[in-house]
Design brief:
Blueprint (H helix, E strand, L loop, with lengths): L1 H7 L2 H7 L8 H7 L13 E3 L8 E9 L9 E9 L11 E4 L11 H7 L1 H4 L4 E4 L17 H10 L4 H11 L10 H15 L4 E6 L3 H10 L4 E7 L12 H17 L2 H6 L3 H14 L2 E5 L8 E5 L1 H12 L2 H4 L2 H9 L6 H6 L1 H7 L2 H11 L6 H8 L7 H10 L21 E6 L7 H8 L5 E6 L9 H13 L22
Parallel strand pairs: 4-5, 4-6, 6-7, 7-10, 10-11
Antiparallel strand pairs: 1-2, 2-3, 3-5, 8-9
């Protein structure tokens, strides 16, 4: 087993893993890279099996101070999974992946990353580190009382204040909730990079994951070879203030595309007005749908209010595969048929268990909420199908959540010469191309790809080939993006 791993992991990581001492200091990590082979690789990471990933992977943990500035007190363990490079030619610079959310765990996506980054993995290790507060890195998870509370929180935007107060009290027994901001997490990642023995690394971050990637590039520029950021959420994003505005743009785009598609226009000639009729109808009289609890509980009756339906519509807009069914779902809803919503809601029981809601609040309440001015809420959300419920609910919860301190330059746009490929979906309801335009102008060696038929999730397979080519070259120059020319919206589902 040891010989097999020594053949598959990249040369730079081998030198680090064969360190003679187990100290976590930067000095010992640098010494590890100079240590001759001879000590078991398990002194740093150990062989493990990861579901859905071909071949052996490497797993381990690394302790950091929860309070990084003080470098004293409680320590937390960061969970690490490395997918070793598989090809015969190994490059010394791995790919570090930042998960979205905020609140998702990078290691939870190991099987998916191994698949979409298969070309990258031929030559480079893929390093997955659960950001502090997520996954197995001192997770800040909050339990919801039942499926109805989950639906109200994740769809309607009514965050359960009392449940979150109880969650805060519980989490504070094991965590200082002010210490889970993005800059602190970025410094964690750099410390792990050094401990593992890597010098320069490549970055990939999508959605919220683009923010720690940008922050890392700002704070540790010399260690970044290249970066891909998709569905961009910059430091001054003001989450979730712009969700209603951007979701409305995405829905209007869908309406326009249906009107210009002869088949869709024929099947759904009054789609715009039908959507408003459904929202108005549910505002007067909510519908009831039965959901089978994915956690194994008894069937649950869910009240579909106007706000719940609007939240479900926004979540459907996140994926191009579900976008194509939106016209049909609206027509069915107009006729009182909500059966397809039951499984949709039930699936979020498992999502809520793996998602670190406490970490999400520690990030949002410290980084986004302070930028939101109450007088701008109505201006940004008025007339939008989502309304202002979630924005006001987040601000209410954040008044009760501990707020971490940020570096003085946190909101300053990241600017440097790192080659950066910025990717936006034209149909994205959360991160439209405007955000990508704002970010890419600060990178002289950057390029912004706007993919016509892409939303927030499920990018076309061709895009992963483009990303693989970019990481191989470490440059946006001469990047062949011709395969994206035909990435139009998927056909709408007809009755």
């Amino acid at each position: 087993m040891l010989e097999k791993l020594l053949r598959t992991i990249s040369a730079t990581a081998i030198l680090a893993a064969l360190a003679a001492a187990a100290s976590h200091s930067p000095e010992s990590a640098r010494a590890a890279r100079l240590t001759p082979q001879g000590v078991a690789i398990a002194s740093r990471l150990h062989p493990c099996q990861t579901a859905g990933v071909a071949g052996d992977t490497l797993c381990g943990t690394y302790e950091v101070f929860e309070n990084r500035p003080k470098r004293a007190g409680r320590k937390i363990s960061l969970n690490i999974v490395v997918l070793p490079a598989l090809g015969s030619t190994k490059e010394p610079d791995p790919l570090f992946v930042f998960a979205g959310g905020p609140g998702q765990a990078a290691t939870d996506g190991a099987a998916g990353y191994a698949q979409v980054f298969a070309v990258v993995r031929n030559a480079r290790d893929i390093v997955l580190i659960d950001q502090r507060g997520t996954g197995r890195s001192n997770p800040l998870n909050c339990e919801f009382s039942d499926l109805n509370e989950i639906v109200e929180a994740l769809f309607a935007g009514h965050l359960p204040v009392q449940s979150l107060k109880a969650c805060r009290n519980q989490l504070e027994q094991k965590a200082d909730l002010k210490q889970y901001t993005t800059p602190i997490a970025a410094d964690d990642i750099d410390e792990v990079r050094d401990w593992l023995g890597y010098d320069r690394i490549n970055l990939y971050g999508s959605s919220y994951g683009s923010r720690p990637a940008l922050v890392y590039m700002s704070r540790h520029t010399s260690h970044v070879r290249s970066a891909v950021i998709k569905s961009v959420a910059p430091q001054d994003y003001k989450n979730p203030l712009y969700n209603p505005r951007d979701a409305q743009k995405s829905l209007d785009h869908l309406f326009a595309d249906c009107e210009h598609d002869p088949s869709c226009a024929k099947a759904f000639p009054t789609l715009r007005s039908d959507t408003q009729k459904v929202l108005d109808k549910l505002a007067r009289t909510p519908a009831i749908v039965t959901a089978l609890d994915s956690g194994g509980g008894a069937p649950t009756d869910i009240s579909i209010t106007r706000e719940v339906f609007a939240g479900a519509l926004r979540r459907a807009l996140l994926d191009v595969n579900s976008q194509r069914s939106i016209p049909l779902s609206i027509t069915k809803a107009l006729n009182g048929d909500f059966k397809n919503f039951g499984p949709f809601f039930a699936a979020f029981r498992s999502v809520s268990k793996s998602f670190s809601f406490g970490m999400n609040l520690s990030v949002t309440c410290a980084e986004d909420a302070p930028l939101i001015k109450r007088e701008e809420i109505e201006r940004v959300t008025k007339g939008k199908f989502l309304g202002d419920t979630l924005v006001r609910s987040v601000l209410k919860v954040c008044r009760e959540w501990p707020r971490g301190e940020l570096p003085k330059d946190f909101y300053r746009p990241t600017r440097n010469n790192v080659p950066v490929l910025v990717i936006s979906g034209q149909l994205d309801p959360d991160a439209p191309p405007e955000w990508g335009d704002e970010v890419v102008k600060n990178f002289p060696n950057g390029r912004h790809l706007i993919v016509e038929g892409m939303s927030h999730l499920s990018p076309p397979k061709c895009l992963w080939a483009v990303i693989g080519e970019f990481f191989a070259a470490g440059s946006v120059k001469k990047l062949d993006t011709s395969c994206l020319a035909n990435s139009a919206r998927l056909p709408f589902v007809a009755p």
